[in-house]
Amino acid sequence: MDFREVMERRSSCRKFRPDPIDPETLRELVRLAGLAPSPANAQPWRFIAVSNKTLLETMAAEVRRRTEEVFPAPRTEPGRAAFERLLWFSTFFAEAPVVIFAALSPYRAVAAEALEGHAHPTHDEINAMRQQPDLQCLGAAIEHLLLAATGLGLAGCWLAAPLVARREMEQILGLTPPWRLASLVAVGRPALLLNTEKERKPLEQIFELIP
Ligand SMILES: Cc1cc2nc3c(=O)[nH]c(=O)nc-3n(C[C@H](O)[C@H](O)[C@H](O)COP(=O)(O)O)c2cc1C
Question: Looking at domain 3-206, what is its CATH homologous superfamily?
């Protein structure tokens, strides 16, 4: 598969075959994810792969519990159907052969060295001013990972919805500050043919050229 084909084939997969993914493949996926660019090459990420079913089911149960706690109970039939979809999009990861948990450590901007002892701007203020470059680069790393998975005949799905139970999952994973759980990536072999007919906005809507 050439690179353009890998990009065109990548598609979110939410139903996996049960076959396990071997540790060497997981190491390779994370190595390729780690080639993504990051501010001042800070590489503020860690990836924890979990294939233990009991752990994944415990986390999914926490996500379900927290979702029911945080979102008001729906009152209409369409509302209930949407809530069931939300629960599914938030918890299907427990059925994947492996889930890669991406953790982020807030990066310390090189620009802060220019402060010479002044209190402001703080690292957090610089990070906000620059639109969270640490989160931005984690996104790049995750996309590397998903493209690498596609190139190896695997598939995956990026998940943020389960972060409603971020603290509970951090505790299960043993993640302590400065590390924060920032994303999940379910990975496996697709059980169904993936939809590569992308519904995307027309280029005229998303691209502008100012010559
Ligand atoms: C930051 C981010 C968070 C996402 N969170 C979820 C999620 O929690 N659950 C889910 O099922 N899909 C999630 N997705 C996948 C999107 O729904 C999917 O990428 C989008 O519908 C486009 O489909 P495609 O990936 O097949 O091209 C997420 C994607 C991104 C980039």
Answer: NADH Oxidase (3.40.109.10)
